[in-house]
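Incident log, support desk, overnight shift.

02:14 A customer reports that sequence design results differ from what the structure should imply. Their input is reproduced verbatim below. On-call engineer (initials T.W.) acknowledged and began investigating.
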């Protein structure tokens, strides 16, 4: 069984192949057919992009997609995640995409279930397909990773997107920095410089913004005026290089981490990231299901 849980143990060569394959899918290469594969998307935390783009990816690959709604599932009657996934296995599901609020929810499942698991986000842990689609977007823009400089702005401490992205970007030779705020504890990683956004904004290639993750906070923070103090205002954006881009995994808190008028600015790649998510998730599904593929169309 092949899974995708984190990128930490994925060889760089595999990451590069996934990016190439996702770009192929975007260019409408012949699509493989997985019409004998049954897929289910088990989301126990809210999602728009990840859940819907996985479903589009599955349908483009002609999979049989079995609807699953956590709110009407037997989880509401006390069934465990383990028993839910074992049920999926028992009824013939081949691949599940899971999002859960617990960090590393998959630890109890690996080795005990006979289906492929793709991590759609675990608590504050990892969001590997988001990181992969972000890398695809960066590669499309710059044609390389080595030497590309990014500053990550926002709620890095509580963000699984940041945790997945920082490590893999460094492995690919990017220079990653985190913008400081006075709101929460600094991101603790000696390899990641903490900087003031105003000091680096004119140098970096990528300003990557993150949503403030209120649902993961154990105390309340005063985010009044966050935009002017720490976020990407129009005035700050005017200091970006002409070749630099804005990224954000979304959902966006408009006028909190980013000024509303920048979301669809010419140098924003926010909606491109979402588009790329479909093609990267097709590449990931094909990767975990290697061996299932029928003839290309
Ligand atoms: N970026 C992301 O994971 O969005 P959703 O929470 O809508 O899936």
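02:41 Re-run completed on a clean worker. Output:
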């Amino acid at each position: 069984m092949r899974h995708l849980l984190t990128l930490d143990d994925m060889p760089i060569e595999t990451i590069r192949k996934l990016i190439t394959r996702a770009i192929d899918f975007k260019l409408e290469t012949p699509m493989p057919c997985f019409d004998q594969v049954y897929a289910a998307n088990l989301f126990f935390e809210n999602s728009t992009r990840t859940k819907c783009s996985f479903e589009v990816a599955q349908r483009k690959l002609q999979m049989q997609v079995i609807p699953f709604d956590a709110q009407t599932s037997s989880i509401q009657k006390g069934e465990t995640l383990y028993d839910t996934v074992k049920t999926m296995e028992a009824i013939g599901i081949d691949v599940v995409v899971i999002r859960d609020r617990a960090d590393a929810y998959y630890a109890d499942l690996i080795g005990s279930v006979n289906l492929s698991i793709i991590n759609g986000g675990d608590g504050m842990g990892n969001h590997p397909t988001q990181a992969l689609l972000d890398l695809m977007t960066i590669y499309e823009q710059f044609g390389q990773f080595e030497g590309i400089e990014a500053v990550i702005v926002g709620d890095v401490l509580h963000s699984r997107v940041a945790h997945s992205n920082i490590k893999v970007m460094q492995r690919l030779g990017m220079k990653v920095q985190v913008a400081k705020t006075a709101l929460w504890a600094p991101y603790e990683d000696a390899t990641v410089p903490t900087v003031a956004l105003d000091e680096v904004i004119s140098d970096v290639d990528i300003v990557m913004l993150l949503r403030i993750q209120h649902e993961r906070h154990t105390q309340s923070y005063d985010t009044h005026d966050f935009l002017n103090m720490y976020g990407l205002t129009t005035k700050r954006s005017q200091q970006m290089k002409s070749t630099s881009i804005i990224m954000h995994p979304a959902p966006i808190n408009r006028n909190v981490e980013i000024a509303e008028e920048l979301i669809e600015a010419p140098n924003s790649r926010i909606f491109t990231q979402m588009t790329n998510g479909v093609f990267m998730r097709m590449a990931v599904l094909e990767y975990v299901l290697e061996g299932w593929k029928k003839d290309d169309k």
